[in-house]
Structure formats: structure tokens, C-alpha cells
Amino acid sequence: MSSAARPPATSIGRVRRRPEVLAPAGDRRALAAALASGADAVYLGLDEGFNARARAENFSLETLPEVAAQVHRAGARLYITLNTLVFEPELAHVERVVRGVAAAGADALIVQDFAVALIARAVCPGLELHASTQMTISSAESAEVARGLGFTRVVVPRELSVEEIRRFAAGTELELEVFIHGALCVSWSGQCLTSESWGGRSANRGQCAQSCRLPYDLVVDGAVRDLGEVRYLLSPKDLAGVRAVPALVELGVHGLKIEGRQKGAAYVATSVSSYRRWVDALVASDGAPSEEALAVLADDLADMSLAYSRGFGDGFLAGSDHQTLVEGRAPKHRGVYLGRVRSVGANEVVIVRDPLDAHGGGASTGGRALSDADAPSGSVSSPLPALGGDTQTGGGAAPAQLELRAGMGVVFDDGRPEADETGGPIFAVEARQLARGQQALALRFGTPGPDLTRVAAGQRVWATKDPAISARTEKLLERGAPDGRIALTLSAHGEAGTPLRIDARAGRHHATFETSSALAAARGAGLDALLLRDKLGALGGTPFHLAALDLSALAPGLHLPVSELKVLRRALVTELEAQILRGPTREVATASVLAQVRDEARAKLAALPPSSSGDAPALIPLCRNDAQLEAVIAEGLPEVELDWMELVGLARAVDKARAAGLRVTIATVRVQKPGEEGFDRRIGNLAPDAILVRHWGAVAAFSRAKPGEPRPVLHGDFSLNVTNGLTAAHVLSLGLETLTASHDLDALQLDALLDATDASRITIALHHHVPTFHTEHCVYSHLLSHGRDFRSCGRPCEEHAVSLRDRTGESHPVIVDVGCRNTVFNARAQSAASLVPRLLQRGVRRFRVEFVRESTSEARTVLAAYDALLAGRITAHEAVRRVGTHEQFGVTSGTMRVLG
Fold it and tell me: Which of 272, 358, 363, 420 pairs with 134 at a CA distance of 20 to 30 A?
């Protein structure tokens, strides 16, 4: 693909570079809509698997060459998502898919699993690798791990603010791509185990069950708290990051990414065209958009709301705002907020504008709407209307922005979004003036229309659909992708008596042709710039536009028949278009590389220093409070892992454990954002015997030995997502002594991993509550305070214990870490006790037992049972009976599907 299809870089004023507008494509219509709307790049998944949106229609590997040619002719780039974890038996199929993608001419792979990167690098070294947001590369330090594998771009987590992205960009040479629009996951991508734990299907395998969109009850200190209509406590509003775009353009990000591979063509068309116009306006104005551009954007926001919106906000781009991220009343499309019902007639509903309510996202939970004045230092600033509290109005498009017309759809919100809400198309609209200047709209409906007996005064009313958007989308699809998006540079060479030679370049593609006739002296102006631009630049109906013409190597005063120029132009266009349709010229291995990559993995394992685990099995307790540490000391165990909510208490716990003669391992936070490096430094200052590393930044930081200082032993936790031998060997080679097997593995998949690596370096979660959601959103701050973040929340987490009760009645504990992130743990612990005899035989030596809120006596019971099991004094059945939990390892039912 011609690099000329990339947005041209600029370096003037506040615009460092024109970023790609990157569009989702879940099917053929969405792809066509993206290209017709001016997308600079598209990303899509394959039927062949390893795709984080497995429920999208997707594309086949067989038709990928055709798709790549379609994308490239439109002047765009094509990125293929192989962004799931991979199990050991699937590696051969991964190789076949990567080879097919490279041969088809795709520009890059978006990858989660290191094994895919290792295989891709061997199959096709020239194929670009982009680190998926699923990889949780969340800081410049963690980006070093990706860079070492050959990645050139990082898709940054959606939890980062603009200021944090700025710090990230300042610390790495890798390209950064930022999600700018669409649905937000409440959990950090790559760190959500909810679907797996509760539904037996893994989000890390493309099978997200969207548990965040379900209703939950808030349990505070053991009692259910009534929140009224607020029940969807983990369902974020959608992201409309328009206010952040000027700052992101200024700091030089390479890509603005639109989420939505499960959305339709109308959603793709409205979002891509809107962000295309907004970016173009910013570039044209050097980051200072006109009033006209702002008015267009406001209209675009209304259209995007009607195409699909759960209510728009800044997400985390303006910093954390726990009062507005989650509104909590509905988990599905709402559109544009119109007002509340005033009265209901036979076929008419009168609604009143309710602007204050439009900003009351957290009102029923004690929250409030926030303005830019409330924003933390370094947050987004913009001339646009505030989005932070604007939960119902389409992200800054005030109700008056929407021209309500006959044919548009509305829905009446009675506070029960899980029910079949009534609504339908409007037959007519009439504006009315009420007493004291209050504005009202009378909405009339045809027959049959909505069941107005279900509509009552006070209900909220939403505009949910505009047929004009669908009609515009269909016309757009009929027109197809615009021509002329690829920049063409021509240079002319020649003198009297020689042919005219034209060198043509379109990015990295190049073609040279000469005329059949020789140049002769001209009687007039001859081949001047005006004539050559006119004849060689007549590129209508082609993918090209003439960007530059260099005549420095062409002698003046020469003549050539115009017909020869036309022949020359057609030849150049034909050759360059053929090159572009074929895609990048890269070397692709034809023979299998998997054996070679596995040999390299074995060599990495062989080069590791000896493990200090020893031959005897070790029970490793992980404690989160003093009561559990007391249990470990009382049981006489030699080692403990500490995962503390705050650092002062952690220091005291370290002293207490050392006084009892325990070897101390300290767990890092699960993710690290730019500016949070101090957490790891403070852990290092406590001089633990070992560190349980949970994020890639800690891997990079702690593996670097400081001169004259001993380096602590490093153990990798489950959050590093190791599911196959290739990834295990690479991660261990980064300086880790052991790894914890991913919770995405079931017993069969774990066996396959152990076959492919050194089992003594694998830690098994023997007993634990699966950490389901790991989220930047703080339930405590949102629902127990008025605070937007840790600066203003009053720290209710230090006074209360919160759980979320699901529809089955299970209450799942919510624990806060030192970075104020919440982890929702599964209510029930699970045990791998039945696997212990076989795992011991396989050479596994480290078995972790994790506690959440267990008391001293509960923790002692658990530790005693598993200690006896590992020593062979009791059976697995008896161990499970004593601890009173259910037996399971990993997912409820295996998710491994050997493909190919």
C-alpha cells in the first residue's frame, strides 16, 4: 500500500501531524461506508479466528486480497485484528493465518499475544505490528517491551487522559493510536475476566458477554442500598472524544480510532465522516477551528447520537470523572434527549424541554454535572460545549441542535430499559409556548402508533432514529469511495533529441515511462508547467491526484505531441494502480517457520538462570489485609505475597512479615499509567525478597539491574496473559523467574502449556476468587460520594465495604487498589485441587492461594487444607470439602478450538 495514503504530516503551529481517522469494519457494508466517508485506515477481523469481535460478521482469509485491493485503491490502509490470546495447539493455524494476511497485502496486524508477534516476525519481517489495547501497554516503560518484539505502534488504553497520553508520547518513539469514539469497556482491555468467570466464554478470546451492561444492586457494609432507577452500575456512556481531538492532534498521535466492529454502516458513515471533517478543519486552521466548523461539529454530534449512543461523554480523555462516566439508568442506545412528558392525549404527547435534567447524570446517586471549571489539571480544554456531564444530549449537541421532524423515531423512558419500551415514528411535530415562557413540543403519532397508555407524565423522551441518516448512508454507498485520494509526485526529464521520461511516485510505489517520440524544439512556450499539469494531472476516475510536479531536469522550450503525454499518463496510472492493488512488496516465508520459532523459545528457556523454587511444592498465600497475614504467620508458612490497598499499611505489613521470619513478595498494581512510576519505586524501596509483577512497565523497570544493587526475584502474575509456550519463553527471558498461568486456560489448555515450557516456572492459582472486572471507574467514589476522582471523593473506600449483587443474588466484593482502581472479585472462590496430583507429577512447584475478604479463621482453614493436600495427607475431595468452595480451573467449559 502506498504510504501516500497516510495523512500527510505537517509541522506548523499546533498541528504536528494529521492523524489517521481509523474506521471499524465488521462487514462489507461497513467497510464500504468507511471508505466512502474518507477513512484513512480500516481495521477488521477474520472468520479464521483470533479476533476480539468474534460476533461481528467479519471477513474470510480467502477474500482478503480483494478486500485489501479495495481499501488500497481508496487511498486507505488495512489493519487486521489478530488480537486475542492463543493456545498452544493453535500456533500452527496462527502461522497459516499470518502468512495469508501478509500475502494478501494487509498493512499491519493488531496483536494481543506475543506469540502472534513472534510468528509474524518470522513469517514476514516487513509486516507492521500494532500492539492492541488488549495488550495493556499503558506507559512508555511498558512500550519498551512491545518495541523489543518489533511493534511500531501502540493502541493506548482507553483509560488514559490527554495529559497521560502526552507523557506516554514523550517517553517513546513508537506511534500512538487513541480510541476517540464509541463504546467504552468498563474494565481495562485485556484484564476483564467476567465473561469467562460468569459465562464460560472469554473476552480475551473474542467472546465478551457484556456483563458490564447488566443490572447490579449496590451492597454497602452488607446492606443493599436503594439507588432508584440507577441499576446499571458498570455500564459506561459512550465516548465522543471530539473535545480532545485538538490536543491529540497537537501532541502528534498517529491514529484516531473509532470503535464499532459490531455496528452497522450508518454508524460507521456518520462517525467517520464527522471525525474526518473535524480533523480536516483543525488541520486547515492550524488547530483553531472556525465558528462554522464548530457548528458543523455540533450537527455531526447530533447525527452520531442518533446513529448509536448510550449518551456521550469525554470518557477518560479529560481525566477521571466518576460522577459522569456511568449514568446508570440504561445500558443501550438512547440517542438525543428531548425532555419529559407533560401530558398524554389520544394520539398526542406533549413534552417540555428539560435542560437541567439533561445534565443530571448522577443526580439520583448524589452526583452532579461538572463543568470545565471542575476539571483536574491537564484535562481537555476546548471551545466546545462541555461533555463531561452531558449524558443525554448527544455529547454537546444541546436539545435545540436537533431539528425534530416527522418520521423520526422516539422512545418513552419509564426507567425500565430491560423491558420492551414503547415508542415509534412521529407523524407530526408542533412547537408550543406554555406559561412563563416554557417551551413544549406536541408529538403526534399515526395509527397504529405507540401504546400511549404506557406513557405517563414525567417520563423522559428520547429521539432514537432519523431515517434521513439511513437515506444518506445508502446514497453514500451507491457513490462509493471517492477517487483521487493518493498523492502522486511526477518528475520530468529530457532534452532535445531524447524521449520525455516521467518518474512517478505514490508513496513507496514507483513507475518510470518514456515517450516513443523524441523531444523537439518548440515554436512557442512548449512543455511548460501549465501544459504538463493540465495533461499529466488529468487524473479523474483514478485513485490519484497530482500533488507535485518537478521540471528541474527538463530542458526548457521543448515540444511533444499532446497525444504522447496522454499515452504516458495512462501508462503511469495503469502501472502504479496495479502496484497499489497488489499491496506492499514484502518477503513472505513460504515454508513453515513454527519449528524455528519454537527452537528459539527453547533456547531462551535454556539460557535462563536456575530457578530458586526448589524441588518441594510450595504453598504461596496472597494476603490483602492484616487478618490474612496473621493466618499465614499462625500456620507457620515460610513465604507470603502482599497485595495492599495503601502503601503505609504495606510497609507495616512487610515489617510484620519479616519479624515472623517470612520471605516477602510484594505485588505491583495491575496496570500502570504514565506518572505512576512512583508506585514501583516505593515497592523497590521496601526491598522485598521478590516482586509479583502484574504490568509490563514493572517487567521493564525491575528487570533492569541497578549497579551495585541486587535485583529482586520477579514472578509474573496472571495479568500478563500467558497462554502458550512461545509467549512464556519470551516473557521469562525478560528477567522473570516464574509466571502464573493465565486464568483463560482450562485444564486441557494448561496441560498443553506445561508441555511446551518448563513446568517448574509456572505458578498455578490453586484457590482464588477470579478478579472479574478491573476498572478505572471507582464505584465507591461514584455511589458513595460527590467526588469526581481521588482528590475530591473523601475516600469512602477506607470506611465502607462495597459489593455488587447480580441477578442471581451473588454479591461480588469490590476492592480498591493503591491507584484507586476497583477490582470486582467473583463471589465464590474456585479451586484447582483435583489437578494437584497431576501438576505435581508434571513438575509444577508453586501453588498460590489468594484471599479477598477472608477473616483470620477462614484463611487458616483454607491454608491448612491446601497445605495438607500438597503434602499428600488428604485428598483433593477432602480439601475442597474443608474450604467449602467449588472445584474449577479457568473457564467453566474449555474455550479451546483447534482451527485449521
Answer: 272
Report the 10 Å Cβ neighbour count for 224.
Answer: 12
Q: How far apart are CA 495 and CA 569, in angstroms?
A: 19
Structural contact between residues 155 and 257, judged by C-beta atoms closer than 8 angstroms: yes
pLDDT at residue number 380: 42
Pairing of strands 639-642, 618-623: parallel
Report the chain's mean pLDDT, rounded to a whole number.
90
Q: Is residue 6 part of a domain?
A: no
Provide the CB-side half-sphere exposure for 549 (13 A, CA).
Answer: 17
Per-residue pLDDT band for 381 (boundaries 50, 70, 90) equals very low
Is residue 740 located within the same domain as residue 757? yes
Given 446, 479, 512, which residue is the final one in a domain?
A: 479
Measured N-to-C along each axis, helices 725-733 and 114-123 cross at an angle, to the nearest 10 degrees, of 100
Torsion of CA 796, 800, 803, 805, to 10 degrees: -100
95 within 8 A of 119, measured Cβ to Cβ: yes
The domain tally of the chain equals: 4
Element (H, E) at 65: helix 64-73
> Residue 120 domain-assigned?
yes
Q: Is residue 554 located within the same domain as residue 684?
A: no
What average pLDDT score do residues 118-147 get? 97
Q: What is the pLDDT of residues 604-647, one digit of tens each?
A: 999 999 887 778 999 999 999 999 999 999 999 999 999 999 89
Assess whether 493 and 632 both reside in one domain. no
In a domain, 329, yes or no: no
Residues 423 and 459 both lie in one domain: yes
- CA atoms lying within 13 Å on the CB side of residue 513: 21
> Residue 448: is the preceding peptide bond cis (ω within 30°)?
yes
363 and 471 both lie in a single domain: yes
* pLDDT per residue as tens digits for the range 201-221: 666 676 677 788 999 999 999
Domain, as residue range, for 379: 336-479
Which residue is listed with cell 512464556? 728
pLDDT for residue 143 is more than 90: yes
Place of cell 471507574: 777
Same-domain check for residues 502 and 422: no
- pLDDT over 90 (residue 16): no
**How many angstroms separate the CA atoms of 792 and 375, rounded?**
11
Q: What burial letters (b/e) apply to 598-623, b meaning 16+ CB within 10 Å? A: bebbeebbeeeeeeebeeebebbbbb
The answer to whether residues 35 and 142 belong to one domain is yes
Residue 426 C-alpha cell reads as 412521529
Burial of 556 (0-12, 13-18, 19+ CB in 10 A): exposed
pLDDT in tens, 750-790: 999 999 999 999 999 999 999 999 999 999 999 999 999 99
Q: Label residue 891 by pLDDT band (50, 70, 90).
A: low
User: Of the residues 422, 449, 479, which one is the last residue of a structural domain?
Assistant: 479
Q: Would you say 175 and 235 are in contact if contact means Cβ atoms under 8 Å apart?
A: no
CB contact at 8 A, 485 and 539:
no
pLDDT tens-digit map of 436-466: 778 899 999 998 999 999 999 999 999 999 9
d(CA 360, CA 362): 6
CA distances from 121 to 95, 152, 224, 342, 842 (A): 11, 12, 53, 64, 32
Question: The domain that contains 686 carries what CATH number?
Answer: 3.20.20.70
Determine, yes or no, domain membership for 592: no
Whole-angstrom Cα distance, residue 344 to residue 394? Answer: 26
Q: Is the pLDDT of residue 35 over 50?
A: yes
Count of helices and strands (H, E) across the chain: 24, 39
Backbone angles phi, psi at 22, to 5 degrees: -105, 125
CA–CA gap between residue 393 and residue 361 (Å, rounded): 11
